[in-house]
Prior knowledge:
Elements: H1 2-41, H2 47-72, H3 77-102, H4 107-135, H5 138-170, H6 172-184, H7 186-194, H8 222-229, H9 231-257, H10 263-287, H11 289-296, H12 298-318, H13 322-346, H14 353-385, H15 390-423
Amino acid sequence: MAEAASKIKAQNETVATALSFLFVFVLMAAYFMLRPVRDSLSSDWTDVELSWLWTSTFFISAIAVSIYGGVISRMRLRVIVPGVYTFFALTFVGFYVAGNTLGENNDLVNRAYYVWISVFSLYHLSVFWTFMSGLYDKAQAKRLFSIIAMGATAGALAGPAVAALFVTKIGNLNLLLIASVMLVTTIPIILRLEGLTGSELGQADLQSNLASDQELSGNPFSGFRTFISNPYLLAIGLFILMYVVMNTFIYFELRKMLGEFDRETRTQIWASIDLAVNLLTFFTAFLVTPLLATRSGMPTTLALIPLFMVGGWIVVALSPVLAVLIGLQVARRAGNYAITRPGREMLFTAVDADTRFKAKPVIDIVVYRGGDVITAWLYTALTATLGLGLAGVAGVAAVIAAIWAGTGVYLGGKYDHENIEDST
């Protein structure tokens, strides 16, 4: 009897993993069809105008998180996740209607779309991983999150391929409609996954699940309060902020170094970087990440890429050339998608539903977008004000990467300690 029950649970886990893979695949494919439409608009604006859009994105993200916190305080958990994706699908239909009514070259609509996609780019994954951390327990997360994350990589390959092949035939606006339909198709997947929570997946320490009739706290700003009052969550916020610093520094340096090439060559180089990142991510997530999380522990999992970045930035400082910087960018992004991001999301399996649904968006969206603004100005101060070149910037980045690694060790230790306590 026990053997039969164990077999059923294993089968349910396989089904849940496959559905989770498909879920994030659809999300990422939809997003990567929408993102080229956004990026195609950026050439219409000056650097100053684009910087203001980035700043606007931060403030709108903060407002959106506050509204989100108020809305979900009045909703059952089981309707929050499908509700979020339905809402975004409707907004993209709205942009489609606005584009057809006012014209594709309406600057106000285009600016609004640019900012809204930047908000969506964080929301769609934040809500997805919130759902995952409530679906699987800690032990399952260590084994399965990297496999599920491979679905994101596959979607990141499929989405831009669809856009590149068909946009000249169907136009930008029709891509918005296709992406909207794709977002809606995630709803039956969500409902099926809800039915597999709890005992059917054999969870031993799950904090909560969407199938229950739980409600969240009524304060719409409780996510902000929980974040600033919880050292564990503050450490996660710092961890993400350090990641954003790495991302911004490399992006700005690459953008500067690629300026000597013509536009077609730059496009080819950026596309080659994306391809290399996604291929490396796929194999790393499949072969390396599950072993790291289950055998080496969370401190190693979370600190590995930051420690690699310390060494990588030192190499860049000693050899500040384009090829080295591109290699660092490929390794950093692949390591984040395959190792750091799944590991970071595992951290939220140790918190309750209110923290996951209300404080996590504050971290994933407000802290991330705020980090974009802060680190962009920090980079500007280092280069324009202090006159640092690539070698100098690399030296500063290496120090920040070391802080990032230390934060990962701290978080991993806290997470593993909780595991030990739960198993005793």
